[in-house]
């Protein structure tokens, strides 16, 4: 495993241990029903269906 992947895995585990729900890759629409906050990567087009629908 590369150093980058090891660091990423540690950060993912930290988020999970803090009870933070997140998704990488595909997205479940139910997760966006009652979000506290949504952070969208700048490279995600604003014309993407879940962005137009939920935000």
Summary tags:
single chain; 0% strand; 2 helices; globular; 55 residues; mainly alpha
Write the layout of secondary structure elements.
Elements: H1 3-17, H2 49-54
What this model shows, in words?
There is one protein chain. This protein has one domain (3-54). Helix content is 38%, strand content 0%. It is built from 2 helices and no strands. It has helices at 3-17, 49-54.
Terminal CA distance reads 36 Å
What's the total count of β strands? 0
Measured by DSSP, the beta-strand proportion falls in under 5%
How many structural domains in the coordinates?
A: 1
Q: Tell me the Rg in angstroms.
A: 13 Å
Helix residue percentage: 25-40%
**What is the residue-mean pLDDT, rounded to a whole number?**
81
Question: Can you describe this structure in just a few lines?
Answer:
The protein has 55 residues and is mostly helical.
